[in-house]
Amino acid sequence: MYYKEVVRQMYDIGIGSLMIVFVISIFIGAVTAVQFAYQLGNSFIPKYYIGYIVRDMTIIELAPTFTCLVLAGKVGSNMAAEIGGMRQKEHIDAMEIMGVNTSAFLVMPKLIAAIIMIPLLVTISAIVSNFGGYIASLASGMYSHSEYVQGLRSFFIPWNIVMMYIKAVIFGIILTSVSCYQGYFVKGGSIELGQASTRAVVYSDILILIADYILALVLTS
User: Fold this and answer.
1) Rounded-to-integer distance, Cα 212 and Cα 122, Å
2) 135-158 in b/e burial notation, b at 16+ Cβ within 10 A?
3) Of 168, 189, 137, 194, nearest to 64 (Cα)?
4) Which of 39, 29, 121 has its CA nearest to residue 75?
5) Nearest to 174 by CA among 67, 83, 102, 21
6) Which of 150, 167, 182 is nearest to 78 (CA)?
């Protein structure tokens, strides 16, 4: 029963969010590349630094943070609404009467699925963002293919990948926990359910940004 629920949540979180993550990521990489090329201007900094900056910015910051902020709005609100609807319709009360541990059955599969799928989505986001920067190089003509690829291959630090996955796991735990909490303890009718879904998104985004700052201080010190 738990296995099937985990698989269902993995599908909803992963496959259901794949398209929006792909679209956002490709434009994040493209815009970052174009803006940095503009900032370089006629400076003495080599243009291949564009690929280097896009790679590290997407891996360290943009991919995990933007992806999880978007997932907080899509996945988090859906979790809060799903559990909150069950609370309002007394499904949770009925399950508790039957002896089901509702918090474990409703929350734990979502948490496990998020810990597995969100790092995968962040990985896809990082790859697609770098590809978006490459597309921008071809479309804008500000820098060449060889310069961008040279930047991607330069000054690589493996610890940055570890940082990305640490952020992805922690952000996934935050958005899942906050969203499930808001849905599980909702009271009232449809208005209160909508407010709970909104709070789930807002609180998740705020906590993710705070955690991002703290992790940046801890992991880069």
Assistant:
1) 14
2) ebbeeeebbeeebbebbbeeeeee
3) 168
4) 121
5) 67
6) 182
Sequence length of the chain is 221
DSSP class of residue 156 equals -
Instruction: Give the integer Cα–Cα distance in Å for 18 and 128.
Output: 11
Tell me if residue 189 falls in helix, strand or coil.
coil
Using alpha carbons only, how large is the chain's radius of gyration in Å? 20
- Given a cut of 80, whether residue 88 has pLDDT beyond it is yes
Residues 149-200: tens digit of each pLDDT: 888 888 888 999 999 999 999 999 999 999 999 988 888 888 888 899 999 9
Distance of alpha carbon 144 from alpha carbon 20, whole angstroms: 28
For the chain, domain boundaries? 2-219
- Find, among 209, 200, 213, the residue nearest to 107 by Cα: 200
What CA–CA distance (Å, rounded) separates 25 from 54? 12
The pLDDT value given to residue 59: 92
Tell me the C-alpha distance between 5 and 43, whole Å.
Answer: 55
Cα–Cα distance between 34 and 28 in angstroms, integer?
A: 10
